[in-house]
Amino acid sequence: MRINKYIAHAGVASRRKAEELIKKGLVTINGQLVTELATMVKSGDVVEVSGSPIYNEEKVYYLLNKPRGVISSVSDDKGRQTVIDLLPQVKERIYPVGRLDWDTTGLLILTNDGDFTDKMIHPRNEIDKVYVARVKGLATKENLRPLTRGVVIDGKKTKPARYTIIKVDREKNRSVVELVIHEGRNHQVKKMFESVGLLVDKLSRTRFGTLDLTGLRPGDYRRLNKKEISQLHNAAINKIK
User: Fold this and answer.
1) What is the C-alpha to C-alpha distance for residues 3 and 15, in angstroms, rounded to an integer?
2) Catalytic annotation present for 101
3) Domain range for residue 15?
4) Are 203 and 105 in contact (CB under 8 A)?
5) Which one is catalytic: 76, 77, 85, 101?
6) Which ranges carry the RNA-binding S4 domain (predicted)?
7) CATH number of 38's domain
8) pTM passes above 0.85
């Protein structure tokens, strides 16, 4: 097995992140520094990342309803609560599939499967990520139409999105809009709304692919079953085709 795949299967990082670890000189096999990305790991080899040995774990997948004020990270140097803190019973070294901002709530998948993570977050696979945003301002078909063609944020155009106007409150000058995107760039949803003159003051991810938050209160989590995992894999494969 190639070294980057081995690291991904061990739940340390995705394949792309594993390649970065190798390039930084943080990976050894049997005490020898790995310099080639194509290096193969054989049965019995001892692989270490940053001096710590890693092992292939059973692949696990969890669905979390992330509350507001929790960091979507494995750890935080400022001592803030992370999503990992919300799953204290999980022994495997899991990490979030993508991120939600600290003040964004809703659906987050956590796993130790690097290949699965790559498949879920890569824009080419067009996995639906559904958000419900409360915005300041009045949402209309006219001001939201640019989102369906793609808007430029941080110098790069977004892929076309879909929207549904759920509510418009003229008295309070605010609206509730559902937005469906396929990407996961930094603060993307907030920046997309801002580009059309609407400022997000509350945001939640309500669906990811075939998954939703039915039965999960904020802070609750559950393990995904084989059918749910298979449906997510199949959704990505069908988009590639």
Assistant:
1) 9
2) yes
3) 3-53
4) yes
5) 101
6) 1-64
7) 3.10.290.10
8) no
